[in-house]
């Protein structure tokens, strides 16, 4: 490990409460009394189900610990929690995240009777697996605008688990925390879109009449909005205005327009005013529209970001613009899972770190994952330094402090492997990317689950 940097010392200062006083995240405790039952019934997911006769337990204990050493099969956990509406007062908070740690062997998670994820995949309902997922840490998240959340009232979290063999159940203490996103010069795209099941490239055209299409709200899968059990291609469309004043700001800042579409399940192509601008999180300038985007494996957990230069002929400044998204779902739930927006992106903003991959437990009892660093710039190669720091926020012990030079070509990416030692405390992970001209990308997040 290299000598402790000024940056790490600054993290101590912030976490100890000596900084600006801003809360890095909000946490709602899930460490109370849970209800547990062996067996299986779809009724167990319902918020109004009476679980008063179920066994009462504390989280963090496997089935072996609870006295079921030879049990293999279904088991359900239920927990009732009040989520305070005061969380919504912080405008930077966009999501609620349920960290459940490792689960043996496969799982399906419900909030107030609706599936929010399965086997580590958000809004996925493909529960049945023939291979254990016990090596994956589980994180499920929903937008704070999601209608499933009952603010200031009782919410029911229900977890359905199937144990193939050996020790089963939930072995970690679950946590519910908030996720913050803050960007300057951010312009929200509409939440109300149009959708149609099926496929035709005519749907990308600016003047296509989509008035007979169904209405859909962005932020939830289409299965949760009336299109159950559909796998295949669907199209989303909406329109938005680009003011001339926004263009003036972009020119003054030498900024590109960056379209943040969030997580899309599974694969995508994005069109602005009839022109393909990108697919599967890669910008494109080609006029050829093919089905090659279907060949890539699912990118359901990867946030999509696409750049256009301000003077791109695809943009209608001072007028209406149409965005169309062609989505291919290969199984489970599908659709656009996040609230989309447009951002003015300077050279510094073109560095984007995708940290959506789940941590996996390896044979050396380390947590492994990868960060993918994207250079979304349309012209320039990025040269700089990446610093990755993991800090135990209770003991203030630095678990990891690594630095490496990086070079990423325009519209290219770099995969960075990461390992994190076990700890019984919450860990703050900070990624810092600094270019040679001292522009800084900074991203911090917590790993709040406790592993035994």
Overall pLDDT metric: 84
Specify the structural class. mainly beta
What's the architecture of the largest domain in CATH terms?
A: Sandwich
Tally of structural domains: 3
According to DSSP, the number of beta strands is 32
Instruction: Please work out how many helical segments DSSP would assign.
Output: 2
CATH class of the largest domain: Mainly Beta
Shape type: globular
Radius of gyration: 23 Å
Spatial gap, N to C terminus? 25 Å
Strand arrangement within the widest β-sheet reads 3-2-4-10-6-7-8
CATH topology of the largest domain: Jelly Rolls
Model regions low in confidence, pLDDT < 50 over at least 5 residues: 6-22
The proportion of strand residues reads over 45%
Oligomerization status of the protein chains: single chain
Q: Considering the protein shown, what is the CATH homologous superfamily of the largest domain?
A: Galactose-binding domain-like
Kindly state the percentage of residues in helix: under 10%
Main beta-sheet strand count, sense and barrel state:
7 strands, antiparallel
Could you list some keywords that capture this structure?
Immunoglobulin-like, Jelly Rolls, 3 domains, 7-stranded antiparallel beta sheet, about 450 residues, globular, 32 strands, mainly beta
What's the gist of this structure?
By secondary structure, the chain is mainly β. The protein is built from two helices and 32 strands. The strands form six sheets. A seven-stranded antiparallel sheet has the order 3-2-4-10-6-7-8, with no helix packed on it.
Would you kindly provide a written description of the structure presented here, covering whatever features stand out?
With 452 residues, this protein is mostly beta strands. The protein has three domains: 6-21 and 358-447, Sandwich (Immunoglobulin-like), CATH 2.60.40; 31-180, Galactose-binding domain-like (Jelly Rolls, Sandwich), CATH 2.60.120.260; 186-346, Jelly Rolls (Sandwich). It is 5% helix and 46% strand. It has two helices and 32 strands. The strands form six sheets. Strands 3-2-4-10-6-7-8 form a seven-stranded antiparallel β-sheet, with no helix packed on it. Strands 15-14-16-22-18-19-20 form a seven-stranded antiparallel β-sheet. It is globular and about 65 Å long. Mean pLDDT is 84; it is low at 6-22.
């Amino acid at each position: 490990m290299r000598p402790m940097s000024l940056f790490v010392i600054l993290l101590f200062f912030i976490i100890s409460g000596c900084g600006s006083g801003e809360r890095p995240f909000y946490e709602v405790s899930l460490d109370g009394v849970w209800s547990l039952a062996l067996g299986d019934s779809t009724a167990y997911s319902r918020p109004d189900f009476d679980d008063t006769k179920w066994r009462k337990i504390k989280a963090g204990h496997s089935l072996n610990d609870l006295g079921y050493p030879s049990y293999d099969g279904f088991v359900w956990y239920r927990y009732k929690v009040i989520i305070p509406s005061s969380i919504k007062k912080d405008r930077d908070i966009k999501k609620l995240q349920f960290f459940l740690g490792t689960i043996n062997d496969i799982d399906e998670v419900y909030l107030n009777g609706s599936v929010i994820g399965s086997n580590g995949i958000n809004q996925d309902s493909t529960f049945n697996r023939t291979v254990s997922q016990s090596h994956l840490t589980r994180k499920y998240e929903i937008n704070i605008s999601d209608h499933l959340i009952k603010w200031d009232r009782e919410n029911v979290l229900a977890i359905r688990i199937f144990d193939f063999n050996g020790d089963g159940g939930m072995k970690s203490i679950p946590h519910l925390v908030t996720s913050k996103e803050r960007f300057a010069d951010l312009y929200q795209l509409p939440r109300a879109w149009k959708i149609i099941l099926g496929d035709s490239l005519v749907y990308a055209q600016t003047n296509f009449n989509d008035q007979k299409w169904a209405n859909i709200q962005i932020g939830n899968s289409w299965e949760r909005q009336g299109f159950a059990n559909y796998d295949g291609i669907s199209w989303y469309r909406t329109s938005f205005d680009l003011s001339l004043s926004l263009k003036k700001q972009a020119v003054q800042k030498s900024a590109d327009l960056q379209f943040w579409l969030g997580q899309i399940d599974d694969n995508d192509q994005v069109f602005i005013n009839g022109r393909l601008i990108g697919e599967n999180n890669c910008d494109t300038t080609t006029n050829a529209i093919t089905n090659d985007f279907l060949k890539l494996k699912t990118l359901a957990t990867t946030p999509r970001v696409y750049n256009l230069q301000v003077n791109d002929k695809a943009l209608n400044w001072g007028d209406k613009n149409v965005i169309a998204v062609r989505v291919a779902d290969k199984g489970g739930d599908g659709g656009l899972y996040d609230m989309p927006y447009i951002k003015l992106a300077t050279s510094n903003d073109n560095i984007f770190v995708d940290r959506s991959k789940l941590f996996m437990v390896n044979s050396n009892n380390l947590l492994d994952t990868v960060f993918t660093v994207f250079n979304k710039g349309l012209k320039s190669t990025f040269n700089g330094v990446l610093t990755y720091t993991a800090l135990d926020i209770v003991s203030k012990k630095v678990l990891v402090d690594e630095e490496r030079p990086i070079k990423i070509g325009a519209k290219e990416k770099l995969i960075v492997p990461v390992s994190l030692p076990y700890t019984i405390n919450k860990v703050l992970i900070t990624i810092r990317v600094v270019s040679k001209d001292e522009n800084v990308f900074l991203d911090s997040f917590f790993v709040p689950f406790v592993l035994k």
